[in-house]
Amino acid sequence: MPTLQQLRYLVAVADTLSFSRAAEMCRVTQPTLSMQLRELEARLGARLVERTRARVLMTPVGEAVARRARAVMAEIDDMREIARRDDPEAPQAALRLGVVQTVGAYVLSVAMPALRRTFPRLRLQVREERFDMLLRQLLDGAHDAILLPEAVERPDLESRLLAVEPLQVVLPADHRLSARPLLRPADLAGETVLTMEGSPDLQAQVTRFCTLAGAAQARDYEGTTLDTLRQMVAAGMGLSLLPTLYIRSEVMREQLVVARPLATDAPTRALTMAWRRDTPRARTHAALAALLSENLGPIPGIGG
Prior knowledge:
Largest sheet: 9 strands, mixed
Pfam families: HTH_1 (PF00126), LysR_substrate (PF03466)
Number of strands: 11
Family: Belongs to the LysR transcriptional regulatory family.
Number of helices: 10
CATH topology of the largest domain: D-Maltodextrin-Binding Protein, domain 2
CATH superfamily of the largest domain: Periplasmic binding protein-like II
Keywords: Activator, DNA-binding, Transcription, Transcription regulation
Shape: globular
Protein name: HTH lysR-type domain-containing protein
Number of domains: 3
Order of helices and strands: HHHEEHEHEHEEEHEHEHEEH
Structural class: alpha/beta
Helix content: 40-55%
Strand content: 15-25%
Organism: Haematobacter genomosp. 1
C-alpha cells in the first residue's frame, strides 16, 4: 500500500509540476522525493509522472491518483482537527487558504493585523491559483477554504459574503479626465479599457459597462496581473477598471496614475469566502470569515 508520505510527495509534484519545488515544499531532498515516487509507481504498477529535461507532466493515472490522494489527506487532516475540537488556538493549527491573484495579497493585507490579534497561533497558508481551479481544488481537499471574487451557491459548500467591492477607473495622471473627482460612464466614450481576469459575472458586467460607455474593451490582457495593468495604464496604453481595495493599497501612492470612482453603473465584485459544508472546522472558518468581513467592509469609492 502507498504511504501517506508518498501521497503527499505526489500531490506536491502535481501541484507544482516541479521536482525541485515539490521537494522544497515537502522539506526533503529532491533525490528522496524522486525515490519515493518511483517506489509509489512500483507499488501501484503504473506510471504517474512523466519526467523530461524540459518539464514535468502528470499522466492521466497520476492526475487521478493525486486527486484521490488530496481527498485522503483532507480526511486525515479533518481527523486531526476533530481531535483538536476545532480549536484555532491549537499549537499546530493551520488553515490552507486558496485565493486568486487579483484578490489574495491586498485583501488579506487589510485584515492581517486583526487576524494575528484574534488567532495568534493560527498558521495561515495562502496559495494563489487560477479562478477556474479553486473550486475543484477546494472540493478535492487541496484547500480548507477559498477566497473568490464572486458569490458561490452550492449545496456542498458554505459561503459568506465578505464585501461588495466596486471597480474604479484608473487612468494616467496627465489624462484629460484626471482632474475630475467623479466620472460618468459617458466620460469614457472612445477610450480603450484594459480588462483584468475575473469571474464570468464580472466579465459580463465590464462588457456591459464598456458598451454603455461607448468604450473599446481590450481583452488581450485578461490574465495580466493588476500591477502590470497599472503599469500599462501609466505607459498610456489605455485606461483600466481595477478593484477599490487594490487601489487603496497600491494606486493611491502612485504618481503616474490616478483612480476615479464612477458616479453610476460601476461594476462590482462580491468578495466571498467558501469552505466544504462537512468540514469539522466550520466554526473556525465562520469566525475567520466574520473577521474578514468586519475589516473589509463596507468598501466605499475612493476619490482623488
